[in-house]
Amino acid sequence: MAQIVNGYVLSGSLLRTYLEWGGIGFLLLLGNSLLDYDALIYMGNAASLLSFVIMGCALRLKTSPYEVLNSMVIMLSFPFLLWGSFLLVTPSSIRQTILDTNITEPNLPVVVAIMMPVAMLQYLEVRFSLWLLRYGQMMRHKRLMWTITHSHILIIALVTVVTIVALLSIFRVLDGGNLLEVVIIFPNIITISLTIFFVLLLLVLVPLWCLSFIISRQITHRLETLTEATTAMRSGNYTTRIVVNGQDEIAQLQTDFNAMASELECVIGELQHERDRVAALLVSRRKWFANISHDLRTPLAILQSRLELMDQNSPTSSDFEVIHGQVHGLTVLVADLFDMAQLELNSLSLSPQLTNISMLLEQLSESYRSMAWDKYRISVIVEKQDNLPLLMVDPNRLIQILSNLISNSLKHTPPGGLIILSATVTELHFCIGVHDTGSGIPMEELPHIWETSYRTSTAQVQNIDGTGLGLAIVKQLTESMGGKVLAEIEEGTRITLWFPVTVGATT
Q: 451 and 368 in one domain?
């Protein structure tokens, strides 16, 4: 139906419009001639039919550069055309009465003279109404406010016209007219209804339009606020919130928007934090690769130089000692790299078993005691609680952890210092510690010592060898066995491994 209306309205050429509505007008006049009216009513019906045909032409005729010329042709020619047809179909009994000059009743020339400006006015009314309708259709696609206003006015207009037409039809039937008469003069009823509607349009619908606009504005303003907030959020302002008004659907939408904005702000904040963490990790990894490259290049250079000397001269025991030390260092470094890779991939194998921690600490102290004293003049002792229970851990990995900690302590403890291996048990934890009397770690650097490739400022100033992998491996190995590790500054540095007793301690 809408396609038919859209294809008909404002789409006809001048000739086609002329033929269509000329024929319709002639048929309506022919039907009017069948009614038994006196001359005055008969001529009034014919005048109303002329108005109806003019309105139909205004509805049908398409707009063109010759709009004014076409409208003048329609409005000037149709009155003569239809009134000529009117005289053809008018019964001879009343034709003469219409043509005769009569002071009390208007004759044909007078009616034609009156109808020409009336037809022009009605033509302009229809064209203006169509312009308003098309403008409203265009605006409703741009603004929701205009959509609501347009719908309100359109519904009111349709209800008003239908009501007027129905009332006039009912009044005509009640006034003594039969159904055939109502059908024949129905175009007249429509013409009168539209005329009344145009009067109401000026008197009533314009104020209603203003009222509808104000009401629509109150609704759409809340949606515009929501749109502005959405635009601000899309621009990166995730702190945008909307003041919720009312409890209707729009208020629910505003509430949901605020909830979504809060969640999005949290997610974006977490993503930004993660981005910064990843960026810092990348920087740390670059430094780590630089350190690893240095640590690999140095022993390789030493090995190459020693091998060149051995090629030129007979090898000495010191040459073999240097080569052995450098190969051992490379072996440890490669092992640490392999362990770190496995830890990051969660593929490191563990073999937990009941372990005698007291015996393990004694063996470690014995293996390090002579070397620590001979090379560094540092004493290694064990302080442990009596009757320590067994602990469910991987003994090889625990030895690797403690060896890393002892090696670090040897590097940072001056001659005459002390390294203490300790073990105690509380109701909840099995504590294994390595405490040295060295230079310690700056307090502000404590949170970072577990990071991969991190080296303390003390190690950098004193040019102490290291890749920064040792403590990172200590932390991950400890956590993989269900424990945790803690660093403290206490007359040096104390590293404590905490294993829950429930994880595996047993008597």
A: yes
Residue with tokens 């055309």: 81
Range of the domain at 431: 353-504
**Nearest residue to 259 (alpha-carbon basis) of 224, 267, 228, 225:** 267
Predicted TM-score (pTM) of this structure: 0.44
The two structure tokens encoding residue 182 = 């109502």
Into how many domains does the chain fold? 3
Q: Dihedral, CA atoms, 476, 481, 482, 484, nearest 10 degrees? A: -40
**Type of residue numbered 287:** K
How far apart, in whole angstroms, are the C-alpha atoms of residue 269 and residue 117?
A: 73
User: Token pair of 450, please?
Assistant: 């577990």
Q: What is the mean pLDDT of the chain?
A: 75
C-beta pairs of 350-354 under 8 Å, 24+ apart in sequence: 350/394, 350/397, 350/480, 350/481, 351/394, 351/396, 352/392, 352/393, 352/394, 352/481, 352/504, 353/392, 353/393, 353/394, 353/395, 354/390, 354/391, 354/392, 354/504, 354/506
CA distance 209 to 226: 25
> What is the per-residue pLDDT across 234-263, written as a single tens digit (0 to 9) for each?
887 878 888 887 777 777 888 888 888 888
C-alpha 84 chain-centroid distance: 69
Domain end marker among 344, 367, 383: 344
* Surface-to-core class of residue 372, CB atoms within 10 Å of its CB (0-12 exposed, 13-18 middle, 19+ buried): buried
pLDDT tens digits, one per residue of 13-38: 878 887 888 788 778 777 777 766 66
Identify the domain boundary among 307, 323, 344: 344
Which residues pair with residue 420 across a beta bridge? 381, 435
Whether residue 104 sits in one domain with residue 83 = yes
DSSP H or E segment with residue 369: helix 357-371
